[in-house]
């Protein structure tokens, strides 16, 4: 073994300071606690940011196409043959014709804007992001003049299954008296809760034929939504799809449409990692200060050990082991605490909210109804290795000073 039994015994004895050396022990304890808190904080924050990104990515991609084909101008006519050709592209799982436009929702005199998306009932029922999160009603009713709305919109407008809402199109009917707003009443057949505020509050899904009729795009759609097998490798599908389009339509993938949002998340994640790493760096400086004080305090003991035959290497290993033990124990403590906290973060949030009576994670601000956390074990390993590296590095100089101590000078005035 690198460290002998004698070296381990002396190193552990130095960590258990006597009463007159209590101040050194307090500094070492704070160093251990600082490293533990730094490691735990890094693990928790990185897990939350990973979970936040994954949740947003999964729900955005589950409700929107991985790739969207638009006409160069206006709606996309004669989309059937084009959709059939796109389905033949390797890796393309489905092609869904949709009609999407904005409309004004009116219920008992209360009005608000909404995004209306028309989709075929059979395509809508196989979207797990929505079909698995219907909380009221059923998608079996999704046909004819029946629509599906989000739970936030239902709560805001006081709507329930079987109620009616009126949609007003921004493109009115031309009459002898000018342009008259075009409006139509629809029955609510399903209410969904996907857990993303933007969709639960603003989206209305209706059958594709009804949307084509309402927005006056018969035999046409506004977009073709393509779902692929590997959305994270979306660049692989662009070339074959572009070849089929031949410049007659415009292609936009999910990375292009959400580039600024996910880039901002990545930048924030990197900055938070650097900032929180400073906690571990400060704790490492505490290890240096506590070990230097320990070396100063144990100067007489070092000299006696040297006169008894201890080599410089033994003295160096003794003090290196003393300081490294603080880093190892602190890192393990932070690892356990961070993983446990990240695994139970939603329950902890609910507990704190119940105590203070204040909402800590507002869906209106953060888009999600629950606090997500996803532990990346590769990232956890990097955090642990970084903490151990800083801790070991912090003990090298004090241990070297202890090994260089001249026993004659240390005992001259004893």
Mean pLDDT figure: 82
- Total domains, how many? 2
How is the main sheet built? 6 strands, mixed, barrel
- The whole-angstrom Rg is 32 Å
Taking pLDDT < 50 over at least 5 consecutive residues as the criterion, the unreliable ranges are: none
What share of residues are in beta strands? Answer: 15-25%
Q: Percent range for helical residues?
A: 55-70%
Q: Tell me the number of helical segments per DSSP (H or I, 4 or more residues long).
A: 17
Order of helices and strands: HHEEHEEHHEEHEEHEHEEHEHHHHHHHH
Subcellular location: Cell membrane
Pfam families: FtsX, MacB_PCD
GO biological process, one term: lipoprotein transport
Keywords: Cell membrane, Lipoprotein, Membrane, Transmembrane, Transmembrane helix, Transport
Annotation keywords:
single chain; 414 residues; alpha+beta; 2 domains; 6-stranded mixed barrel; 17 helices; 12 strands; LolC/E family lipoprotein releasing system, transmembrane protein; lipoprotein
Structure commentary:
- The protein is of the alpha+beta class and 414 residues long.
- It has two domains: 5-59 and 262-413, no CATH class; 73-247, no CATH class.
- It has 17 helices and twelve strands.
- It has helices at 5-15, 22-63, 79-87, 121-125, 128-131, 151-157, 197-202, 208-214, 235-245, 254-257, 259-297, 299-307, 312-343, 345-356, 363-366, 377-403, 407-411; strands at residues 67-71, 76-77, 92-107, 110-119, 134-137, 146-150, 164-175, 178-192, 203-207, 220-221, 223-228, 249-253.
- The strands form two sheets. The protein has a six-stranded mixed β-barrel with strand order 3-4-9-6-8-7.
- Helix 2 (22-63) runs antiparallel to helix 11, helix 2 (22-63) packs antiparallel against helix 16 and helix 13 runs antiparallel to helix 16.
- The longest helix is centred in the first third of the chain and has 42 residues, at 22-63.
- It is elongated, with a radius of gyration of 32 Å.
- The model has no long low-confidence stretch (mean pLDDT 82).
């Amino acid at each position: 073994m690198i460290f002998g039994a004698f070296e381990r015994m002396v190193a552990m004895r130095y960590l258990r300071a006597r009463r007159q050396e209590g101040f050194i022990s307090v500094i070492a304890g704070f160093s251990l606690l600082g490293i533990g808190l730094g490691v735990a904080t890094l693990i928790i924050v990185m897990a939350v940011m990973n979970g936040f990104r994954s949740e947003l990515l999964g729900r955005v991609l589950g409700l929107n196409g991985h790739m969207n084909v638009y006409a160069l101008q206006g709606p996309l006519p004669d989309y059937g043959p084009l959709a059939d050709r796109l389905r033949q592209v390797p890796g393309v799982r489905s092609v869904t014709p949709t009609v999407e436009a904005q409309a004004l929702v009116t219920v008992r005199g209360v009005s608000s804007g909404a995004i209306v998306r028309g989709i075929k009932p059979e395509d809508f029922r196989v979207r797990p992001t929505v079909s698995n999160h219907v909380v009221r009603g059923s998608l079996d009713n999704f046909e004819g003049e029946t629509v599906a709305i989000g739970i936030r919109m239902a709560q805001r407008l006081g709507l329930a299954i079987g109620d009616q809402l009126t949609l007003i199109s921004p493109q009115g009917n031309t009459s002898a008296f000018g342009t008259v707003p075009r409006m139509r009443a629809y029955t609510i057949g399903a209410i969904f809760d996907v857990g993303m505020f933007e969709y639960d509050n603003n989206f209305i899904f209706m059958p594709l034929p009804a949307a084509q009729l309402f927005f006056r795009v018969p035999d046409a759609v506004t977009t073709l939504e393509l779902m692929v097998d590997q959305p994270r490798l979306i660049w692989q599908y662009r070339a074959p799809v572009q070849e089929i389009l031949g410049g007659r339509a415009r292609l936009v993938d999910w990375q292009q449409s959400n580039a600024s949002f996910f880039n901002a998340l990545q930048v924030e994640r990197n900055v938070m990692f650097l900032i929180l790493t400073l906690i571990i760096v400060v704790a490492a400086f505490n290890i240096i200060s506590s070990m230097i004080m320990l070396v100063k305090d144990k100067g007489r003991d070092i000299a006696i050990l040297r006169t008894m035959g201890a080599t410089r290497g033994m003295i160096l290993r003794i003090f290196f082991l003393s300081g490294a033990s603080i880093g190892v124990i602190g890192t393990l403590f932070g690892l356990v605490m961070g993983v446990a906290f990240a695994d139970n973060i939603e329950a902890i949030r609910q507990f704190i909210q119940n105590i203070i009576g204040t909402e800590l994670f507002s869906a209106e601000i953060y888009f999600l109804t629950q606090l997500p956390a996803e532990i990346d074990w590769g990232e956890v390993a990097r955090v642990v290795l970084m903490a151990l590296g800083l801790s070991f590095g912090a003990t090298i100089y004090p241990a070297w000073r202890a090994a260089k101590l001249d026993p004659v000078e240390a005992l001259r005035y004893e």
